[in-house]
## 1
Amino acid sequence: MAAMPGSDTYRPLLAYAVLGLLALILTGWCWTTQLPAPQWWGALLHPRLDDPQQLVFHFAALPRALTALLAGAGLGLAGLLLQQTLRNPLASPTTLGLEAGSQLALTVVLVAAPGLLMLGRPVIALAGTLLALGFVMACAARNRFSSVALVLAGLVAGLFCGALTIALRLLNQEFVAILFLWGGGSLAQQDWSAPAALAPSIGALYLLAALLARPFELLALDEENARALGVPLGLVRSAGLLLAALLTAVVTAHVGVIGFVGLAAPQIARLAGARRFAARLLLAPLTGALLVLAVDAIVGLLEAAGIIDLPTGAATALLGAPLLLWLLPRLRRSEPPSTQRSLATGARDRTRLLPVLAALLVLAVAGALLIGHGSLGWRLIAPADFALVEPWRAPRAAIAALAGAMLATAGLLLQRVSGNPLAAPEVLGIGTGVAFGMALAMILGQTTGLAAHTAAGASGGFLALFLVLMVGRRSGFAPDQVLLTGLALSALLDVVIVAFLALGDPRAPQVLAWMAGSTYYADWSKVVTTAAFAALLLPAALALRRWLDIVPMGPVTARALGLPVQTSRLAILAMASLLTSVAVMATGPLTFVGLAGPHMARLIGLRRAWSQILGSVLIGALVMVVADVLARTLIAPRELPTGIVAALIGLPYLIWQVGRRPQ
């Protein structure tokens, strides 16, 4: 571990001692609700077969605690390998679509071929994880496994798998509670089979990672220097990704999805003072193990008290997110990530494509108004019948276009200010804040009706924005810290949302459909309000074009050119937050356009900030309008959420472009 200032030398040791002591105290407290402490040793070695309490302690409580330690260590190591390999602080097992692949595989089997469950859930989850990894690596191979290509391929693959999973869940709502319970990560055990399988697997993978510690350490250098030192970047990155995928697959197959640990554990290890990879290789798994053990003990206490039965995987944010939020202001500022260059301006700006995009948008809006699908199949609406369908179709098309334009613009602002291809509106935590407000209102049952739920959602969104900006203020609104704050806050708020969905509440499908992006409730009053905000915010975003051209050059160059770095960061982040808030309140947290719209604008050749803003506006609106048409017609008279259809439309194109074009 790198040396630290004298006054801070013992702080990391103290922090880990406190965390470890907290985990042990909570676990012991939880065990006392199941068996008196004097009987623990006897129940561990020789449980009495005529004592149900000792049997439960031996075959359920002890294996559960050991499984928590092993699962947390495995995910902490997986997150560390991904962040080191991709040189991205936002990387986690979710980044490469590994968890999404396992969830999709299990969902498909459960819905379409339940007979395959005889193979075992671990086998199915492992197959989905490895297929997702193979797909990502195939897409990134043309780019020589560059970190940017791997991040983009993994994220779009994860979003695509997630979109398919949600669509299947919405069409098979009788399985929603079961799938969300598994997706929440349950550590409940009834024998020693899970820890017996996890221990050798995670141990062997840890040894392999330790043997490759020096090549992984050199990945922290830029690509030119690493190659000059003889590091085979493609081979080392492939090894890191494969190890992370295997760790994620092993853990997910046995306990389900345990969120946030893969992101938080490496960051907490770094914030505790571990600067070198070898030090983080020890501390990241330890952090993950202690986090999951402590959270699982809290979950057990809540369950024993009859308060709530919450999946452990969802509840990991209860301890990890506040801890990360507390440590973030203490993070030393770092240099811009290596992805910065790829997001900067280029030599040629193909602005002639903007009129083409505008024409396509006009055609899409016309199609949204005139194309329908009924008992006789697809048909065009006759002019005489247009007045009958206009009140239903026009508001939907308008709200979809406005939301898509604002989310794509917000994503562009975030990606330019941070230089991070993972940056997207949902990363700020605003969409999760809105969903949290609505879910909490439904759980409490104090508000009814669309207007009341909308007000509750708006309150949650603005509270999330306030917290993110307050924490970011201490770091001078450093983009990576703001994004990590948003992710931590999202994970914390997700506890309530996942619990609500997993507990089988009959209103859960309504929340799930709204979170997937629904235009079903659009009307002209909502359109007018959203359009008024868009008319103010989109031109204001365009007015920031000079700052957006300079910011990707890095803080040193920006200051040399006279740019007020802290002020510009705050202005850009605030603008992205406002755009996201309005769009999410209009249609729900659509988790595709804000990420992919800016990338698609760059892929068609738009380089300058002003042209990328206009291109993102047009692409976001175009994709959402087309998605709205397909959402209401593909399985008529039933509907799919517009956001899910948008993902199913746009993500294959983005995946194809990432795999086709060298960086």
## 2
Amino acid sequence: MIGNLDHSTLQQLWWLIASVVGSLFLFLTFVQGGQTLIFTLADSEEEKSLIINAMGRKWELTFTTLVLFGGALFAAFPLFYATSFGGAYWVWMLILFTFILQAVSYEYRKKPDNFLGARTYEIFLCINGSVGILLIGAAVGTFFTGSRFSLNLYNSVTWHTPFHGLEAAFNLFNLSFGLFLVFLARVLGAMYLVNHVANEPLVKKARKATLLNLLLALPFLLIILISLVTMDGFAVNPATGEIFMEKGKYLHNLLGMPAVLILLLGGLISVIYGVVATAFLGKNCGIWFGGLGTVLVGLAIFSLAGYNDTAFYPSLTDLQSSLTIHNASSSKYTLTAMSYVALGVPFVLAYVAYVWKLMNAEKLSLAELAGEDAKDMY
């Protein structure tokens, strides 16, 4: 059946697959959000260790999913990968550096003869959860605001700014996108602590943190939504492949793709309900509503950027250098082969879900941190 799909359908399918992976990554940033709560929720070393070890059990998932997202884009849309990672390399290098800091921090924070001290590694975790997520949000924001690059006849990229991607963080929309993701990650991190930690004083503070960080995220969400429905977009003529500016393009995408509008509204409602359930109803399951909502919002954002004849990586320097899911994709043969391999992904996800359930079978407590396995804790 897959072999009978035409090239255009495969391109849309792989944009959907990449979008799903990217949206799952956004959910898993609860780890980064939890890391930024170390200095705001913990009133003692014990509470700090609870937060770090709760997040430490899942930190590899976030990093692995980010790598998988990059790998999916590299395989399915190699021209985008080459253009973005080859041109905007400073922003991607900084993002990678913050994730290296995260890995090193979990490995060495509690090691004996740690000459930097545990607090230094805790600051590193905070940098990963704030600066790293902010830059990722700014990079995703360029799907709508564009970047200053051009491609020659041989698809060699030239970046027309010395900042090589860092300039994205100085755009209001991109900055708002990044800050929204930072506070959303903190909301998810707090909800995960409520679900996973057996320490009532810490859980009580985490419940309050979910509401506070949602309120802090709302102004940036409003900027994003207002911008999306009012800004001009980068449209594609499906007959010629020509890129042109279209007034209200992303509003047209929302109205032209009702399923995307439903995903966006449903996702936002789900996140809000997760916060209400956690902060006001005393429930511990808010992370699942918040996580589902985050995935749905992520799918809506990526769909707005890539579908309905839209350039998902626009060029502000040369409109015709802008990338679409059609001109940036791999060949039909490559996408077909990858699609067969992707049939095994649900089994991998099922295994991850099974392991997750086993790891979360019991809530993390101070007794566990002081038990016989204490030497293996973060």
## 3
Amino acid sequence: MSYRAAARPSRFALVADDYALTAGVSRSILELAELGRLSGTGAMTNRPYWPEGAQALREHEGRLDMGLHLNLTLGEPLGPMPVLCRSGSMPGFNPLARLAFAGRLPRGEVLAEVLRQVDAFAEAYGRLPDYIDGHQHAHVLPGVRAALLEAVALRWGGQAPPFLRDPFDTPGAIVARGVAPAKAAVIAALSAGWRRALDRAGIPRNEGFAGVSPFDPARDYADDFRRFLVAPGPAHLVMCHPGYPDAELARLDPVTDCRLIEHQFFASDKSIHAIEESRVELVRLTSISDQCSISEGIV
């Protein structure tokens, strides 16, 4: 009998991606953090808004998990990457993925940039991040995942390692939720083998992942969020992308109006009611990683 059939998990973590992408995205996340609606947020430390944004995040130390949203697909790198970023800007996800699956990623460049982004987090925030995930889930691509694990070993050494996101979930859970199932299945396929690599390295991670969205402003996000809490894993993680759209966001990212819709939902009592109706409790990432340990070996 699977763990999900044996006992329904009672806790989940909700993390907001893309902190420091723009000033409006950061402002939205800070407002939701002040309301106690989030478990954590992941910062894009290669963005110019990060140093100032780090100071604002410090006000939530101890109440919010602070993560690195590793970014290899948007904006400029923090140091020279003459092969991967010949134009001076990060490649998009598709070019990065093609290089990764062809075994042509410049491993040294990727490792150096991962280390720079980790160091930029620590320099501005004053300590290493609680967790690491990846913009567009690029952290699980071949070559990138190896560089990330090496960076964790180099920077954390004998310290307790950070929580790393596993964007995999089972086909049954993805179908049961019914929100962007094809997209969620592709992300899950990209993550094949990542969980085993994390477990071998003794790195905490989630087991159960939701929040994959079609980013369609015509959809009812409140209904989608309730679906994200269907068929939860034993260490369930839900991602979200709130923000205040502006001209800069529109220039950088195709997801604009949906960010405001998400912000308005999480800022309202609707989000509280959805969680209560689903009979789950919003907790920190460290709490769900503890919960994950009791399901070790179950995929």
